Queue: 2 jobs
Job 1
Amino acid sequence: MKIAIHNAEGSFSERWIPYCESHSIDYKLVNCYGTDIMQQLSDCDALMWHFNHKGPRESKFAKQLLFAVQKTGKKVFPNYDTVWHFDDKVAQKYLLEGVNAPLAPAYVFYSKKDANQWAASTDFPKVFKLRNGAGSDNVKLVRSLTEAKHLINKSFGKGFKQYDAWANLKERVRKYRKGKTSLWNVTKGVARIFHTTEYDRVTGKEMGYVYFQKFIPQNDYDIRVCVVGDKAFAIKRMVRENDFRASGSGTILYDKKYFDDETIKMAFDVSEKLNDQCMAYDFVFADGKPLIVEISYGFAKEGYDDCVGYWDRDMTWHEGKFNPYGWMVNDVVNSINSK
């Protein structure tokens, strides 16, 4: 048995490789960008690749490669059920509605007429989102019909850039004032106003649809629950100052007292319906009941290193440090052995 791993800076591979080495699991480093990748995998039983949703190259083919490898009978992480809807909020709306998951109500329209008719009949505020983006990228609070019509006109007009340079600069300044980034990083944000990212150039503009989600008030935080196989862990993310968005804020709480059993169990139940390998669920609360706003198979490793324990599928709490990236490797190994 041999696992192929695509090694990339900042990805899960930085934890997978040491785990394989410390547990004597045979692995091989491969280059998923190579035209001969299928030949590279010829002596392997599985491929593990944590790809970046903002990568200009992998955004073009990562899912297709993983699905092709899975079709050959090899195991992959992430597999189809885990990743087909990754970084696509519209796909997630359909999926979560289809399995009767507790999704914060979402609305998508593919014509300007339909969108305007809906906007004229609904109340505000609503949350506007592009289908792509993480860390609160491409997310705006729409406070009035006038604002909604402006966004609708732009959606069915010139469209939206994938990279919002001004919003990104504002976020860099916020983090600089809190001592969470450098002045040099702020300077790079200024430069981005004149020279956009490669991802923005490659992917082009978002247009031809509009997506809104119900705004759930009185939430000064969200709860992110990550389910990996039959285990789960969670963090509490506080919203930015004078903002409504928690994702990417960088203000995280870890103590078990912040998490209720209903939310954890709900994440387990939805993962069972989706049959996924790994999923992070972002929850807000309406009248005390958890509602999902987004899901993602990937997450930034460092934000979870201070978690104080995890739950198993029986809702038993296990206090202490743990290695969810090792769980991912073990799940792949077990799936190979059970073929």
Job 2
Amino acid sequence: MKKLFSKPEWLLVIVTSLGYFCDVYDILLFSAVRKASLIAIGVPETELANVGLSLLNWQLAGMLVGGLFWGVFADKRGRMVVLFGSIIAYSVATFANAFVSSVGMYAVMRFVAGVGLAGELGVGVTLISEVLEKHKRSYGVAILASFGMLGGVVAALVASKMTWQTSYMVGGVMGLALLLFRVSVADSEMFKKVYASSIGKGNILQLLGNKSLLVKYILCVLVGAPTYVFAGTFITLAPEFGTKLGLSEPPSAATALLYFYVCLTIFDGISGLLSKKLQSRKKTLYIFLALQIFAVIAYLFIPFETANGFYIRCGLIGAAMGYWTIVCVNAAEQFGINLRATVATSVPNFARGLQIPFSFLYKSLAVSLGIIKAGAFVSIASVLVALVAVFLLKERFENDLDFVENEN
């Protein structure tokens, strides 16, 4: 029986997966410790939701900045340089989050952590896509995404067993420890060939100045629109939604996150394998976007009587978000080597950043419509945006990635 990967290929997949694991741990840890950490630094109970969304937006703003910075740097200087630099940045910032004493300091630390966190996923997907043979690509990225998503599960478990300060320190130490494994991984031969040439690399103006490239880039971002709209609204604010939906006691954000990420981890792997089975990224995206609409209806409008019933709905939201693998690999497959890391690294971060305008829309609608109708409106709107984007994109399933974008 032929092996799936060679030993060097397995090493690459494992090392990038561990990096994404640490990345997801930190991204989702804030949702799990939001309430405890904000109360500890003196935020009133009535302001927990608004301050929490504001801090989440600071983190996402950092990821927008980091997504462009690390992506351009990866195309200009190398994929592995970014994987080292980004993990150092977010590990130190994550550790420092344990010592915040004010909302302002918390915002700065979430922003800095966001900048660091932005580099892992896109560059990891780029590296795997360029190193593995094209028929192995879907498997490699599926393993990366699924194992990485376990970081969210671990974040929920750690937050439920430890103090919020210790939870942040654990994340920082894990990230720094990962540096020891990274020294054995090198850049792809595809990139080395382009790096040695005179071809322009990581040129933002090339991306912005070419209409077809820019439109394709925007569509790749919009495909991921629902991801953090759902997570940032329904999971981060799980205590508020659970109470409003009829629970006598507010549900645990950490438990909601655990259900969400267990299901997301499972379905992220399934989406990669499903796209392989269907020989199509677009068909898989359509299936998961349809599941998202069903998940919203179940979460907000199908009655439940117990906390477990609510947590199951959080799991369904997670399952519906299991298309993240396809969002990322689709972006990598759409662009040439000289812009691939710029695109693949910034696309997931700009998709995450769409939570910022959607959260402002949600907060303004919640005042007049209430959180249930506001949540339904923003989530369904984000899914419709993604559906249009998928329809307009071309199918690029397991295409040959050894090409560059012409500068003319």
